[in-house]
Design the sequence.
């Protein structure tokens, strides 16, 4: 097991308990989608895995270590092995695309290399390759504030691809992107995870994307895991119940109707 | 655009380097072990501050003097400023306006400390010189602000009074003043706050208050007394900051 | 009404002030002071324009500019590391909180306090002290500006960094980047114009301050003016005043230009 949560809870300073005694494990090379209504604790769960939040109780093991028992250097090394694609890419508007992508390896580069790279980019080819995978290689020297929302999100993904982390986390990475591009981005992240055999944990708003791309789905509601199953075993009734508090419909891209699985036909996820 | 940035940065670095060279400042020499030891010795000679009751009394007196200099200076400036603001706002014709504005600009452009040095020559060493120095400079600052306030004040109330046959002076008092008085007071108080800080240091050229005490004690190599004065300055400024924040809340409410 | 009461109260307070300040306009019109002052003022015109004096003034003006520039540079060197230290959003141990959190927080406090101490003492007082510590001349002025403005810049820099979007830097820290790298990749591009603009503004203030500090012997135009005043040569004083005014206008223009270029 490369990720192990045991009775992990998280209580925010205002007293809100976002995660309640969650236990689960994710193995090497596994790809997992987390779905659930908004406020269910998806983002909090991801931030716990990103070591941006510290569990209030319970124990957490990431890539073979408890992050909060490591010393400073150990924690930094661990963090440099975790890459996060944010909902809104956290990139300064005036930065050039190439710099924003190279920033993925700041945790691995020595300080002098990071600083020198500001004056002359250290690895233009590497950054270019990652951008090419996202089909925006021509934007290499563009300033980030001249990009569209979709392009900027692809820069954010390219940064994580360039980082080459052992654990890729994505927090609703495509909620502000059109369906075709969403498919590309989620597809590319999956290809990367499969090719390098690393873990991918994605929280997704659109259930159809999750069912299509991921071999394992975790449904979360009220800070607790409701189900943890492969897509083939997830029924429409389970999904409707998961989202019952939010709306009558299960959220999908552009509110397309979710393909129902005829009894007897197995829904096969990609790369399973 | 990026090329311009690099160019500007390079020029700035070059100018900075030239500045050090021009002053023949050798930072290595300045921060050499020997110099640092000497500076350290000088610094430690300031401790402990002289807290004898006798000297504290004198420092208290100096602080009072500083406050008095700033208060009287600001009050004088408020009166003078208003007198000059009237012509500067164009109430007595264009010629008077130009002359008044020129005067205000002149008063304002000369820093307080230069005024203080001049006033020490005119009125002799002591707080009176400091008061006058603050008054001149502040008149320039306040007068311009007042003139702007007067120009921006609504004209209708004054116009109405004038049409009903009031005298010009009364028109000003009843028609214009009520609209601007709050702002004039606010400006003056704000300026007073600045002037207290200023009054604390004007004394280094002999214009009374805490500054003069500091200058004298340093000249006599009474570092421990100088430390007391510096502490008094810090306390004074802190108290003024607190008080003005409160006062402004009161006036706003 | 309380407003009026307040004003009346202040005016009552003012009364003893007149006594404390030895307020006596008659002094100004006493025969001997009127005479010296009258003589002195009458020498204000014409301006002193002898080549030798102008050369002297030019040299002092350059010195003033150099003091302001070197002092601001020193302040920058002092402020930058401190600002990075006390900026909470660049603290790695604050995430979680992680190892070293208590120590980090305990260290930030004294640094903040030290910066406050440096900037609370007016630059002219520092100048007065340094003139005695390192001798008359520009070095005292440079150190005084460096120290006072170092305290101001350090505080304002960290405020600027904390007021901008802090998510880029936080995201970098969360993927294991160090403090310096997170600053340069996550904050620098956003905050640079504001940082430059404030530094340039401080340089402008430093030009004015370095003139003032000359009065206590810290070199530059002020020291020259003090000499001329003491020798009662009005023409020299008015020339220096004029140059000072031009210098202030020039500093204003330069800082406006620099801010436009970096914006």
Sequence:
């Amino acid at each position: 097991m490369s990720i192990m949560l045991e009775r992990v809870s998280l209580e925010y300073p205002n007293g809100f308990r976002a995660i309640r005694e969650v236990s689960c494990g994710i193995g090497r090379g596994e790809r997992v989608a987390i779905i659930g209504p908004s406020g269910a604790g998806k983002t909090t769960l991801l931030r716990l895995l990103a070591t941006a939040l510290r569990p209030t109780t319970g124990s957490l093991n990431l890539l073979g270590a408890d992050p909060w028992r490591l010393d400073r250097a150990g924690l930094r090394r661990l963090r440099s092995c975790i890459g996060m694609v944010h909902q809104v890419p956290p990139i300064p508007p005036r930065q050039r695309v190439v710099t924003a992508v190279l920033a993925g390896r700041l945790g691995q580069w020595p300080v002098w290399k990071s600083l020198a790279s500001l004056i002359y980019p250290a690895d233009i080819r590497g950054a270019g390759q990652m951008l090419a995978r996202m089909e925006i290689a021509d934007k290499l020297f563009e300033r980030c504030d001249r990009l569209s929302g979709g392009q900027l999100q692809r820069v954010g993904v390219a940064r994580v691809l360039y980082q080459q982390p052992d654990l890729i986390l994505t927090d609703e990475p495509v909620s502000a992107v059109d369906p075709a591009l969403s498919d590309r981005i989620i597809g590319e992240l999956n290809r990367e995870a499969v090719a390098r055999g690393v873990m991918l944990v994605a929280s997704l708003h659109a259930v159809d994307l999750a069912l299509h791309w991921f071999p394992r789905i975790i449904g979360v509601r009220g800070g607790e895991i409701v189900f943890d199953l492969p897509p083939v075993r997830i029924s429409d009734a389970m999904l409707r119940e998961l989202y019952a508090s939010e709306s009558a419909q299960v959220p999908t891209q552009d509110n397309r109707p979710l393909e129902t699985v005829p009894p007897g036909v197995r829904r096969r996820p990609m790369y399973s | 655009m990026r090329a311009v940035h690099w160019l500007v940065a390079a020029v700035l670095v070059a100018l900075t380097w030239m500045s050090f060279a021009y002053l023949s400042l050798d930072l290595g020499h300045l921060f050499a072990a020997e110099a640092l030891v000497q500076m350290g010795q000088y610094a430690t000679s300031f401790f402990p501050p002289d807290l004898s009751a006798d000297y504290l009394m004198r420092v208290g007196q100096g602080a009072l003097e500083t406050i008095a200099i700033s208060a009287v200076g600001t009050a004088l400036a408020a009166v003078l400023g208003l007198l000059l603001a009237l012509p500067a706002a164009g109430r007595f014709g264009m010629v008077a306006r130009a002359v008044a504005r020129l005067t205000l600009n002149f008063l304002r452009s000369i820093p307080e400390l230069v005024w203080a040095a001049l006033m020490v020559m005119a009125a002799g060493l002591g707080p009176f010189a400091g008061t006058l120095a603050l008054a001149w400079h502040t008149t320039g600052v306040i007068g311009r602000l007042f003139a702007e306030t007067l120009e921006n004040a609504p004209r209708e109330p004054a116009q109405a009074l004038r049409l009903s046959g009031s005298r010009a002076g009364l028109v000003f008092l009843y028609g214009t003043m009520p609209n601007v008085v709050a702002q004039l007071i606010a400006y003056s108080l704000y300026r007073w706050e600045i002037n207290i800080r200023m009054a604390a240091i004007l004394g280094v050229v002999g214009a009374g208050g805490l500054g003069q005490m500091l200058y004298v004690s340093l000249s006599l190599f009474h570092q421990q007394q100088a430390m007391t004065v510096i502490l008094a300055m810090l306390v004074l400024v802190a108290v003024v900051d607190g008080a003005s924040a409160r006062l402004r809340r009161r006036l706003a409410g | 009404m309380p407003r009026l009461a307040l004003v009346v109260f202040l005016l009552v307070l003012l009364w003893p002030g007149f006594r404390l300040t030895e307020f006596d306009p008659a002094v100004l019109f006493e025969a001997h002071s009127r005479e010296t002052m009258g003589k002195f003022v009458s020498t204000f015109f014409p301006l002193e324009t002898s080549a030798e004096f102008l050369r002297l003034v030019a040299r002092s003006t350059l010195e003033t500019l150099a003091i302001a520039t070197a002092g601001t540079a020193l302040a920058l060197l002092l402020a930058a590391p401190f600002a990075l230290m006390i900026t909470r959003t660049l603290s790695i141990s604050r995430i979680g909180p992680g190892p070293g959190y208590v120590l980090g927080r305990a260290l930030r406090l004294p640094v903040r306090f030290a910066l406050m101490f440096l900037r609370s003492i007016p630059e002219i007082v520092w100048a007065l002290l340094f003139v005695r510590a390192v001798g008359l001349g520009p070095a005292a002025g440079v150190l005084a500006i460096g120290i006072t403005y170092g305290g101001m810049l350090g505080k304002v820099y960290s405020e600027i960094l904390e007021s901008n979007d802090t998510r880029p830097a936080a995201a970098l820290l969360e993927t294991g980047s160090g403090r310096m790298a997170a600053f340069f990749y996550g904050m620098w591009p956003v905050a640079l114009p504001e940082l430059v603009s404030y530094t340039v503004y401080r340089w402008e203030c430093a030009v004015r301050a370095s003139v003032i500090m000359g009065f206590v012997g810290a070199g530059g135009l002020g020291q020259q003016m003090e000499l001329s005043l003491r020798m009662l040569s009005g023409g020299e004083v008015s020339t220096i005043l004029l140059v000072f005014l031009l210098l202030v206008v020039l500093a204003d223009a330069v800082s406006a230009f620099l801010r436009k270029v970096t914006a």
Q: What stands out?
A: Chain C has one domain: 46-262.
